Amino acid sequence: MKSPIHISIAFGDAILPVIDCEDGYKRVPLKPISDQIGLDWVSQRRKIKDNEYLTNRLGLLLVGVKPYQNPESQGEKAQYCIRVDRVTAFLNIINPLKIRGMGNHEAADWLEAKHSEWDDALHHYETDGFAIKESQDARQLINTLSQIDRIKDPTIKRIAAQKANAAFAIEIPIGNQQGLDV
Fold first, then answer.
1. Which residue, among 174, 124, 130, 115, has the nearest Cα to 148 in the 3D structure?
2. Looking at the whole model, is its pTM more than 0.90?
3. Of 81-85, 90-94, 152-156, 171-175, minimum mean pLDDT range
4. Looking at per-residue confidence, does 97 or 141 come out higher?
5. Residues 93-114: tens digit of each pLDDT
6. Whole-angstrom distance between the N-terminal and C-terminal Cα of the chain?
7. Are residues 1 and 33 in the same domain?
8. Per-residue confidence (pLDDT) for residue 121, from 0 to 100
């Protein structure tokens, strides 16, 4: 008999089991996330559980979770879990000033940086139709693609695209498409 595979993800110093739920979503326990940031778990649970919108948005469920350290054990403990793809949404409703006021400056700084990054990404997605994680390579790629797009001469454009493909390990289509040189 094959033993089931148990998947976990790291969040700070916490290891969170990833639970496949009957509705098709993967979920993680919320308490370790809350604890990692230094939030009062009872207040966080109440804030989400007593708010129908947040319960639905985060996909909050009471789920039987095997102990993290011993996934082969028979017992389970009921824990409130949220969808993996909603962890960011949960973190986005936390006020970094409150975290800093509780003395956890490192978590507050990290959370403020994440909020700023997510706000910028959402703005780019809403205004440009896409968002790219900011890095030196991403900015350089965007700048290069923008320059290639402005080239009018098809031969020069083709050469620039070939060089960009090689430099960034991408595949800009090169050649004739719909009767136009690209």
1. 174
2. no
3. 171-175
4. 97
5. 999 999 999 898 988 998 999 8
6. 56
7. yes
8. 87
Same domain for 113 and 159, yes or no, is no
Question: From the CB of residue 149, how many other CB atoms can be counted at a distance below 10 Å?
Answer: 11
Other CB atoms within 10 Å distance of the CB of residue 89: 15
d(CA 153, CA 19) in angstroms, rounded, equals 54
Task: Looking at the structure, tell me whether residues 3 and 87 fall in a common domain.
Answer: yes
119-123, 154-158, 177-181: segment of lowest average pLDDT:
177-181
Structure tokens at 151: 């080239």
Report helix, strand or coil for 43: helix
What is the residue range of 83's domain? 1-91
Domain count, the chain: 3
Q: Say yes or no: 18 and 31 in one domain.
A: yes
- 144 and 63, same structural domain? no
- The strand order across the sheet containing 26-29 reads 7-11, 14-20, 26-29, 77-83, 61-65
